[in-house]
Target: Cytochrome P450
Amino acid sequence: METEVNTLMWMIACLANNPGVQEEAFKELDELFGRNKPMPKDEMDLPYISAIINETLRYRPPSAFGFPHVAKEDDEYNGYNIPKGTPILLNLFAINHNERRFIAPDKFRPSRFMREYSTGSKRSSLYGILKNNSPSLNNDSVPMHMSFGAGRRYCIGQHLAQKQLFLAIAYILWAFEIKPGADENGETPLEINLNGGNLTLTSFSPHPYNVKFILRKDISILFQ
Model:
């Protein structure tokens, strides 16, 4: 659950810093559901919500290095000798911020994970992308982000995690607007500082921050 919680914490902070992204999500949710909350079966009908999740995983992967692999035999890469048995870490953060794979990788842009996306137009479905195990928009054989790892150590809980993240963020954005909260000095920053974080070999989480949730709908509907 740690990586899933980390992702949700990064996502809430990113949304607080990007009101325009929230507005697009509100349009999608309100257009389809209004006063009815989204359900698990609605994931394919909410491509922008799914894009927010994928962009968060790319922008701030919950584990910057993933789980270690081990070289099965002696190898060489770019002049470096890699003896058999050497532990190898995937630099997921660097891969996800590679300018050859992503335009403006330091920008939080969920629309990069949508086909034929344009503000105000009919949103194209992410059904094919999600169905095919999240392939790249440019190359269907390459994952569009590496936050679930690679090879035989690829995270087997990917689909469960994505379902749970979808429900969490779809519910939150259906009911609330997220804004930066006041700090310990009582001042409200324009943005939450997302530079750096708490980093270990298996976990990457944001530094503590404050946000405020502003009701968009009658919260009592959630408990009917």
In short: DSSP finds six helices and eight strands in the chain. The helical segments are 2-17, 19-32, 47-59, 92-96, 127-131, 158-175. The domain at 2-223 is CATH 1.10.630.10 (Cytochrome p450). Confidence is low (pLDDT under 50) at residues 117-143.
